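Encode chain A's predicted structure.
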Amino acid sequence: MRITAVKVFVVDGFRANFVFAKIETDAGVHGVGEGTVEFNELAVRAAIEQMTPYLIGQDPFRVLGLTGLVHRQSYFRTGVVLRSALSAVEAALFDIKGKALGVPVYELLGGKVRDSVRCYANAWFTGARTAADFASKAGPVVDAGFSALKWDPFGSAYMELDRRGLREARACIAEVRKAVGEEVDLLIEGHGRFNVATAIRAADMMAEFDPMWFEEPLPPESVDAVAEVRAASPVRIATGERYYEPARFFDLLASGAVDYLQPDSCHVGGLEATKAIASMAEARFVPVAPHNPMGPVANAMNLHLAAAIENIVILETMMFDVPWRAEICREEVKFAGGFMTVNDAPGLGVDIDEEACARYPFKRQTLRHFDGRLTDIRPAGAEKSIFA
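Encoded structure for chain A:
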């Protein structure tokens, strides 16, 4: 079996654009992977295209040999664009290998340790503006079966949070806690928006509501600063979505900066890199909660990782998605009682429709995190849950 073609599809996902890689072979077996990275989608496409000459004519079963070759040949070896492109290519190669052998990808990662994984909901709050809006939307999330939900209550704040902003954030958390009860986990998102002093102040404010974690309280550049916040915070700290080198995850663990580690398999170089990061965390008894707000292929990638990695404790899931998700992707999502079932189909168990992808081409998006439009995360018509 030899690789004959590498195709890249950049597809409008409203919040960002999905970046899918499709690798074809002379045996008629193809594989898909995803390397979505917000606001750098065209650069990732170009990086995959740059890798293509090293892949054509090669044996797709040589998954780590091929990705290792591309990694070496890139010379600079790092950066979120390169590592996201590697993630897409590596996942597509694993998908081919699983299909050809007739086994799910989790078998190639060491075999199954669980049949399903607990999930928390994101994107449930589309259009919410006030504390009452968030509370009214939170109840149906629990009714749908989720026992954990995440959101960012901090509006457009950046670095500093004034007293009014702190009161409004507290009121939002309080109203959601009241709406869902005491048995549901609340995960408070920070989107890397605060300085050290403000992050600690925000953590102190939310402690009375016993959140499962405070996510990404600081920008990612300084691991020592994150460690400083964690040392002072009464709330557990989660981070990792904006780190992409395994060595940086080692730094987070060695510095005592994190309670929950959040690697994104679309950004760190692929499934094997995510597994290596999880192994580092396991050595320190740190749980892993993969960052997973991307597209449907990435969801399949993370589901297979969750099946094979014991210290993955919860998986992020986007409760609502673009209305055309079912057009661009063939997938089977089984969700009940707050858990998503692992797909046992050969390979990743997911595929893309090329013609449908072409109907929803790249659309330039802007960052909504700090301009008050954060909750406009889904378009009109996206109210139907993909887990319904």
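The chain has two domains: 3-103, 107-359.
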